[in-house]
Amino acid sequence: MLRQGQFLFKFRGLLPVAFLIIGLIIFFLQARHSAFFFTEDDQRTYDLACLCLALSGLIIRIITVGYSPKGTSGRNTATQVAHQLNTTGLYAVTRNPLYLGNFLLWLAVVLLCQHLGFTILFLLSFWWFYRLIIFTEETFLETEFGADYLTWKNNTPVFFPSLRKYQPSTRAFNWKKVLRKEKNGIAAIFGIFFLFQLSGAIAAPEKFHPVTFLADHLFWSVCALGSGLYYLLIKVISATTNWLENNSGTGRA
Questions:
Q1: Phi and psi dihedrals of 209, rounded to 5?
Q2: Which of 126, 139, 183, 96 is nearest to 12 (CA)?
Q3: What domains can you pick out in the chain, each with its CATH number?
Q4: Could you tell me the pLDDT band of residue 253, with boundaries at 50, 70 and 90?
């Protein structure tokens, strides 16, 4: 399990990409044959409900990253990194808040397809994939932090949160870190939802016209454009200044 987990840890970013590609294909075919569960008006409400689910996952990620110290809760893939043991904030209610956020975010994307078999495949794949990754990470943390880690582990759920265990974070919220680290997620959510709208529209090429599509899907178009510009802005700021490199927040302000 350890070797499998180490391998999957390095490539954990590929699972969402694979399900995105498969999901877009399924959604296109569903739209081509009008095989959705909902009418057009209900479909818009359903899409917004999925967006809310995705944003709830993003919020969990933002809170987790914002209160985490430097050297933890990162996007590292080559090796395990943990300079400190996180036990407060969302880490007091679940040992894996970032993976919980990822789960809600990508479940929302999968649900857009309205395909029961694809949803079940995602749930099983996510469970298998992250079970091995979590095992690998916990083996590393037990080696690094010993008894302190075991005490926290034995009192904190592995995935589904127990809100009654919540303890406020002892750190200040680092919003600069959030702006820098979560730009990908913000842009990805709205970009992906826009892609699904576009996929559904081009499934009927005889009815598709770019200008009409953008007008009919103004909300998704503006959100995708805005999040894309935000991503580029943060990239430029990070490349040309050190304004977002403030990783302090060692205590409450």
A1: -140, 125
A2: 126
A3: 2-174 (1.20.120.1630)
A4: very low
